[in-house]
Amino acid sequence: MLTAALLLSACGFHLRGPADLPFDTLYVQAPPTSLFATQLKRAVSAGSQTRIADSAKSAAATLQILNEVREKQILSLSTGGRVSEFRLLYRVSYRLLDSKNIDQIPPSQIELQRDFAYNDQQVLAKEAEEALLYRDMQTDAVHQLVRRLQAAKLKS
Question: Most buried among 59, 117, 123, 131, by the most CB within 10 A?
Fold first, then answer.
């Protein structure tokens, strides 16, 4: 046991810990019904020292969620001409501005995709699977955006 503990501590592995964002306050500008923005605010508040501001004037940085798109494409058809696979796409476009409205991160995009098999005999189950995959992609996009914000360096 002692040897295993020593080997694990020597390998350099450690938990990610809180995100160290390069600004004290952040305003998230997004449509009021955006679930992505709500999840992002929750992740920033819980996982970092950064506070979410109520207005852009009182924030050191403003994150604009420019666009959030969900797409569904047919990936393959069966020999009978029925859909057998779908590809789900989830895109989030954003940009980061400082308190002087200067781009710190120019308009950028996070794009995720998932493929899943479809069966006409299991329509309700496949709809639930699709919703779960979109929710999973949204969570992944939130984590990616927090990491990108963490890597941002505010230019004066």
Answer: 59
